[in-house]
Amino acid sequence: MTVEEQVELIVKALEDRKGADIKVYDVRGQNSLTDFFVVATGAAAPHLKALVAETQSAMKKAGIASYRTSGDPESGWIVVDYIDVVVHAFSPEARAYYALEKIWAK
């Protein structure tokens, strides 16, 4: 599966669980950590948990396991690292505070 196909699968999983304001940032050539960041907003802690669970389930079905998951729903920010794609699920408050879009948007 190409990295672009992984991004499409992740975005679909986030959409299926009603993730809001889903953005994909192609950061190839801008850093050495990953190729893409996918950022989504969940309404509350249970919603963040559902977004991450759906993403992990879809990727697992495709034969791709996450390298690492950090954060928890109550913190307002969960990061799932698939090496080539890093998924950020934020509460609205955490997303506004950390403002990743300002760093990675072209």
Number of distinct beta strands: 5
- Give the CATH superfamily: Beta Polymerase, domain 2
Low-confidence stretches: none
Largest beta-sheet characterization: 5 strands, mixed
Radius of gyration over all CA atoms, rounded: 12 Å
What does this structure look like?
With about 110 residues, the chain is an alpha+beta fold. It has a single domain (about 5-105), classed as Beta Polymerase, domain 2, CATH 3.30.460.10. Helix content is about 40%, strand content about 25%. The chain contains 4 helices and 5 strands. It has helices at about 5-15, 45-60, 90-100, 100-105; strands spanning about 20-25, 35-40, 70, 75-80, 85-90. A 5-stranded mixed sheet has the order 1-2-5-4-3. A hairpin with a 4-residue loop joins strand 3 and strand 4 (about 75-80). Helix 1 (about 5-15) packs across helix 2 (about 45-60). It is globular and about 30 Å long. The N and C termini lie far apart (about 25 Å). The mean pLDDT is about 95.
Q: What keywords describe this structure?
A:
106 residues; alpha+beta; Beta Polymerase, domain 2; five-stranded mixed beta sheet; 4 helices; 41% helix; globular
Please provide a brief summary of the model.
This protein has helices at 3-16, 45-61, 92-98, 100-104, and strands at 20-26, 36-41, 68-72, 77-81, 85-90. By secondary structure, the chain is of the alpha+beta class.
